[in-house]
Each structure stands twice: as structure tokens, then as C-alpha cells.
Design a protein that fits this description.
mainly alpha, Arc Repressor Mutant, subunit A, Tetracycline Repressor, domain 2, 70% helix, HTH-type_TetR-like_transc_reg, DNA-binding, transcription regulation
């Protein structure tokens, strides 16, 4: 995969939920709800493309599935596919970072950073449907087994560290420096990286490993 493709998919990671907050905003001008509706349609289209791709990957294998086949199965044009994903590998990204961090931000204030992340991950997993769980498992397995996807996997973890750093800066306030927030975020995401390779949906192992991290912080 070229660096240009990785950069393009990373921009997609950063922007995929832009404007979503408008869905929950009251008393706004009429143009803003319209943008919220468009954003919801974009998210729905992205999910439709991704589900079609995962189904085809299971049926034909990743290498033997073309973007044209994915577009046809999703009832969109190849051009529309490229508006949502820069590469075929980009379909494998499960869009977990933003919702998990949003739940982390809403975790009870008395929880430690590690406990708050455990809370967020549990809430995220609990909210998945059976179909979403299956799609996530298939996609994560492919992400770790396809060399061309490694750059995107790194970008997703880098994005999660950045978002967690921002969330920790708010959560911990002036008592923690930006560097301290980033170190904590990196440690938490490092645990996720350690347990995800070979375990596509590591609910139990992630919870146990976060316990290890929290215990280590008290040594």
C-alpha cells in the first residue's frame, strides 16, 4: 500500500463522524438538521458498503474480491465507494475509535483512566448486534493477516492514542500535562494492541489485561 493511500484512509478515519453531534442539538437553524441528516446518510452508506465487502470477503476471499464487486453488492457505484474508502483495505477498519472515546468521555468522573476505558469498552461491546460482532471479528482477523493493511492498522491505533490524549486532557484537567496524558493513552492503547493480535474481539482478555495495567501503575 502506498503512503498516499494510507494518508487518505487516515483522513477518512478522522472525518467519518464530523457533524454527527448535530443529531443531538436542539434549537439550531434549519440548515444544521439538514447537515445532520446528510451525515446520517453518509454513515449508513459507509456501513452498507462495509457489510457488503465483509460478506464478499467471506465468500470469495479478500484477494479475489474486487472493489467493483463490492460496489455492486452495496448498490453503489465504484466512484461512490472511493468517496468513502481510499482502498479496499480501508473497509476493514471497524470505526471503533470515536465511539469508544465518546463513551470514555462519559464514564463516571470518579473512575481512574484505566477503569474509565474499561467502562467504555464494555459499553461499546454491549452495544454491538450479533451481525456487527461477526463483521468486526472477520475484519479484525483480516487486518492482522493482510500485510497491505498494516499501515491502516497503525494509523487506527495512532488515531486512538490522539483521541484518548485529548479526552484525558479534559478528564484530568490541569493536573496532568499533555505529555502525561499521551503516555497514559499510549499505555492503554498498548494493552489493546497486545491482546488484539490473534483475538479479533478481545472482550475478556482486554478486561483482564487492563487490570494488569492498573495494578502495575500502583507498583
Amino acid at each position: 500500500m502506498s503512503s498516499r493511500s494510507v494518508t487518505s484512509d487516515r483522513r477518512s478515519l478522522r472525518s467519518r463522524y464530523n457533524g454527527a453531534s448535530e443529531d443531538h442539538t436542539g434549537g439550531v437553524p434549519s440548515s444544521q438538521p439538514a447537515r445532520g441528516l446528510r451525515q446520517r446518510k453518509k454513515i449508513a452508506t459507509r456501513r452498507t458498503i462495509r457489510r457488503a465487502a465483509i460478506r464478499l470477503f467471506e465468500e470469495h476471499g479478500f484477494a479475489d474480491t474486487t472493489i467493483e464487486q463490492i460496489a455492486e453488492a452495496a448498490d453503489v457505484s465504484p466512484r461512490t465507494f472511493y468517496r468513502y474508502f481510499a482502498t479496499k483495505e480501508g473497509v476493514l477498519i471497524c470505526d471503533q475509535a470515536e465511539p469508544v472515546v465518546a463513551m470514555f468521555e462519559r464514564a463516571p468522573a470518579e473512575l481512574s483512566p484505566v477503569a474509565a476505558y474499561r467502562y467504555a469498552v464494555a459499553a461499546y461491546f454491549d452495544g454491538l448486534t450479533d451481525d456487527e460482532r461477526h463483521e468486526t471479528i472477520v475484519a479484525q482477523h483480516l487486518l492482522y493477516s493482510i500485510p497491505e493493511a498494516r499501515g491502516l492498522l497503525y494509523s487506527e491505533y495512532a488515531l486512538l492514542i490522539r483521541l484518548m490524549t485529548d479526552a484525558l486532557a479534559v478528564r484530568l484537567g490541569p493536573a496532568a500535562t499533555r505529555t502525561e496524558c499521551r503516555v497514559i493513552a499510549g499505555a492503554i492503547v498498548g494493552v489493546l494492541m497486545a491482546v488484539s493480535d490473534g483475538d479479533p474481539l478481545p472482550e475478556e482478555s482486554l478486561a483482564r489485561s487492563l487490570d494488569v495495567l492498573e495494578a502495575a501503575a500502583r507498583w
